[in-house]
Design a protein that fits this description.
single chain, 3-stranded mixed β-sheet, alpha+beta, 2 helices
């Protein structure tokens, strides 16, 4: 991997921090609108619906999980 393609630790931390700041602002929004906001900022969206029993415990600096209660409204959002 070349130096140009490596992402620095500070860049990863900045991306995670941005996600942590964005996540609470998504609560109460329609799922499609929230998904567009997240992807538009370069993050990956993972939607968690009722009945989804497991989510991974790994940390991804670019991921935001959107939790719904089956009504296509974001009830909880988490970065990482």
């Amino acid at each position: 991997m070349s130096e140009d393609s490596q992402v620095s630790r500070s860049q990863l931390e900045a991306q995670l921090l941005e996600g942590q700041m964005l996540a609470p602002t998504l609560i109460g929004l329609p799922l499609d609108f929230a998904r567009d906001m997240v992807t538009g900022r370069g993050h990956v969206v993972e939607v968690v619906r009722p009945g989804d029993e497991l989510v991974t415990a790994d940390l991804r600096h670019d991921r935001i999980r959107l939790f719904t209660e089956g009504d296509d409204v974001v009830h909880r959002a988490e970065a990482g």
